[in-house]
Specification:
single chain, 8 helices, extended
């Protein structure tokens, strides 16, 4: 008696590529399944305390106001966190950790408490102190402020909020005629 095999009789076969895709998907999705619905995503580089400090510094430098949704809404701290996590330069990572630690030390020196426990006015006065020599930073805290401000501005103006909402960038557009001055005449 001959028995005809159908596809239904054979077990399903998965090729190697499909298996790799499924395994990769499980590795990526697995940790997410254990998180509670509103639990924050862990930071990639900064500790929670460092991240909260950076987020607050970002919002002070580019605050929410009539013209801007602010650095916090643009997720500047997350952008910097991700950039540093992916950086192959340990010296950059060290500069950030030391700089944030310096902010905390100065806050304790000036106000007797951590930066996040200082009043809003105290926080601003600390930043005014370390930014006073912004044009020619010499001290470590002044150099850190320069790097901090530059990184926050970069993160903000490359975000959707900064680039599209605030600057109203429309992308590359065709110009019928040159709108600038002719300098070769």
């Amino acid at each position: 008696m001959s028995h005809k095999h159908s596809d239904k009789d054979e077990p399903a076969r998965i090729d190697r590529r499909e298996m790799v895709k499924m395994t990769a998907g499980a590795l990526i999705a697995g940790p997410q399944l254990n998180r509670k619905k509103n639990e924050p995503v862990p930071h990639k580089f900064f500790t929670n305390e460092e991240f909260v400090l950076l987020d607050e510094l970002s919002e002070i430098i580019i605050p929410t106001d009539d013209q801007s949704k602010g650095a916090r809404a643009a997720k500047c701290a997350s952008y910097i966190d991700k950039t540093l996590a992916e950086s192959p330069h340990p010296e950059d990572k060290q500069k950030w950790r030391e700089g944030l630690s310096l902010i905390e030390s100065i806050s304790k020196e000036m106000f007797g408490r951590q930066f996040m426990k200082a009043t809003a006015q105290e926080r601003i006065s600390l930043l005014e102190r370390i930014s006073a020599q912004e044009a020619n930073p010499v001290k470590p805290e002044e150099k850190f402020f320069s790097m901090l401000k530059s990184s926050i501005a970069h993160a903000y103006y490359t975000s959707r909020i900064g680039l599209l909402d605030e600057l109203e960038y429309k992308g590359n557009t065709y110009l019928r005629e040159f709108a600038g001055e002719e300098i070769s005449k």
